[in-house]
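Sharing a chain and its predicted structure for anyone who wants a worked example. Both blocks are below, sequence first, tokens second.
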Amino acid sequence: MNAAAYFAVTQANTMKPMQDCGKRPLYGPHDLLWVTCRKALVTHDALPDWACTGRLAHAPVVVRREQVGDLALLPVGLRGETRSQRFSAYVHRDDVMRAITPETLVRNVAWQSRLTLQQFPAVIALNELAPFLDSSGLHWGPTGSIGFTLATGLTVLHPDSDLDLVVRAPVPLTLVQTVILEKAIGKAPCRVDMQIDTGCGAFSFAEWASGSKRVLLKTDTGPMLIADPWNAGARIDSGSQPKP
């Protein structure tokens, strides 16, 4: 996206009323939660065998996006050692003992204290991108396998792992912030999956910055194709099939 086109879009967006998504919830998507015990999990089906191992008995669950009717329950996901080992569940808020957000990992510069991880491309990329992301003035943090590994000490990171990041942007990105994020991604030695979280949902920065007329916004009620991810009222076609 060139500067002139971006400026025009940003100017138009600032003239639109923004949907008020409220403050960030106590527990939001990508947060890692430690619960009292595995019995605290509410599931529709029996836990898979891999989720019952001693190693995973001390692992956190990950908050995921879903609209839940019972406000006492949080939608969470369990992850195992491989990419195929994923399982959806729910947990009672009162059973949460501890939580770590992606931003907490940044405040603690968690990746610099794990010397055994320094050879992984995702960690190398995180070291290189961190100064750029900090200079943007936006809150951000690592998620996915790198976030899980840094928060738990359980290595689920692989040499071919992406660098997964969430960047909080409750209002439209400025031109300066956009340029900073583009430069950061361009310097990465591995693939970077940067999700921009507006508070109402999250979308791919790469897709948005490419100049696409619509982006896929992931929300608690499901994905939607939308022209302006900061304004849910600008939704074009919620019935459209998600992009492949």
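Comments welcome. The chain has two domains: 3-16+102-237, 32-100.
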